[in-house]
């Protein structure tokens, strides 16, 4: 039998359309390994909500591998030394993995050198191939989308291997329980299980359900009170579902185009990291380095807890805490409120989302925050300030507010978006909209 090979798993926790697994299975006995590396990412170590998801998806993947006669090896520590140790322990000469674009993973891949065999498979196309005429990476989404569209449709997804060759001897593995990924008491994630089922099988079922309803996506995606979005983002983030699998499941008609562009946006945000790897920490527009952000510690806490006095913002922030997810339209409203109304640095909101979202993706989270804040290379202008009350009415968020802000549950549609007589227990607005808008515009003028 050939020497065993390692299959290094990261955010590609699936057996379907897994190019690294297929290549490894052709090369020899396969040792699948997941390394919990909290050192390499540094401040971007996986947040608490993601760790809840990780526990459950690793358990699911481990069962799927055992059904194939294989198993999942778990190691904790710096990824590169741990993988090298595994190679020494098992005699493996090669490591197969899907390419990643976060800066810490690019650095780890570089250090592993020729031993590492990289495969593309977590995006619609190899991002280093989607380039401008001069060979650079795109910084503007519209141009990126045009270039990516020329390469579509993506390659057909790969079938799951019929069998996964096992080594004669398995190396030592940590137990998943020993990693303590789940929250200790009090269990702030106790409501997550009602909304989510991590794992590849659940991802494929949810994708099938969404494909049946994709014709309604464009019309319903901005309505918080209906199930109009795909809710596939955490499954895509953890790689339980590949984007090209989803692309090919979609109807070929124009009704799916809006969602296809959302898949492309995910590719675009990863592509931007190749140009600006520190995008999670640095403004895309240098002028904002001069912005005088407010400290606003009490305002930040009110925003985090959903106690701003703006019902649509508070509903979103409470949904986030309870479920690890927030409706996309409300994410924009809540983010704009923090940055423009409260004049608090977008990075503080970005970090809160990183810790509380089950789908917190470094590229997506960074780019989306900078888009809303107006600080990014491809973003809204600073002067575009979302009106929370107007957005709430426009997108008919009354029932959404009633679900997540029980203090307002008895209010009718004419009052719930902006209750003038506040029910007991619901706070006053921490700042008026007009006052906040004038302050934000003045701050923008000051940095020109």
Summarize this structure briefly.
The chain is built from 19 helices and 5 strands.
Describe the structure.
This protein has 448 residues and is mainly alpha-helical. The chain has three domains: 1-121, HUPs (Rossmann fold); 123-156 and 200-275, Serine Threonine Protein Phosphatase 5, Tetratricopeptide repeat, CATH 1.25.40.80; 286-446, DNA Cyclobutane Dipyrimidine Photolyase, subunit A, domain 3, CATH 1.10.579.10. Helices cover 45% and strands 5% of the residues. The protein has helices spanning 19-27, 48-67, 79-90, 103-112, 141-149, 192-195, 200-213, 217-220, 233-237, 243-249, 257-275, 297-305, 311-323, 328-341, 346-356, 362-373, 388-394, 398-404, 433-446; strands at residues 5-9, 30-36, 73-76, 95-98, 116-119. Helix 11 packs across helix 16 (362-373). The mean pLDDT is 96.
Task: Give helix % range.
Answer: 40-55%
Tell me the number of strands.
5
Report the top-level CATH class of the largest domain: Mainly Alpha
Q: How confident overall, as mean pLDDT? A: 96
Please state the overall shape, judged from the principal axes of the Cα atoms.
globular
Give, in order, the helices and strands.
Answer: EHEHEHEHEHHHHHHHHHHHHHHH
How many structurally independent domains?
3
What is Rg? Answer: 23 Å
What name goes with the CATH superfamily of the largest domain? DNA Cyclobutane Dipyrimidine Photolyase, subunit A, domain 3
Task: Order the strands across the largest sheet as they lie in space.
Answer: 3-2-1-4-5
